[in-house]
Amino acid sequence: MKIAMIGTGYVGLMSKVCISDFGHDMACVDKLPEWIEMLDRGTPPIYEPGLEAVMTPDIASGRLRFTADPAAAVDSARAGFVTYERVGL
Fold first, then answer.
1. H/E element holding 55?
2. What sign for the dihedral angle of Cα 51, 57, 63, 68?
3. Residue 80 forms beta bridges with which residues?
4. Residue 3 main-chain phi, psi, to 5 deg
């Protein structure tokens, strides 16, 4: 299933990685270009033991994608979630 999630903070990123690891196609949206660049390289901007090892194969397979464009993420998604928890944005 194609799923879009807005926000790549702790809650969002952990949820996205776990769902993509179950085999779902995850499009992840964030407005911080530096976070998108890090995530595209497989480097999580948050610390969680084992996160990088789980997300790297999902990125390589194409199941886990990151973008700053919400329209591109939700265009073909069957479900969407908002997990945006950054204060002040």
1. helix 51-61
2. positive
3. 4
4. -130, 140
Identify the residue whose tokens are 């069957």.
78
Strands (E), the chain: 2-6, 25-29, 64-67, 79-82
Answering whether pTM is above 0.90, one says no
Closest-CA residue to 37 (of 68, 9, 4, 74): 68
Matching residue, tokens 């990088």: 52
Question: Beta-carbon neighbour count of residue 51 at 10 Å?
Answer: 15
| CATH number attached to the domain at 2-82 | 3.40.50.720
Domain ranges of the chain: 2-82
pLDDT tens digits, residue range 25-74? 999 999 899 999 999 999 999 889 999 999 999 999 999 999 999 999 99
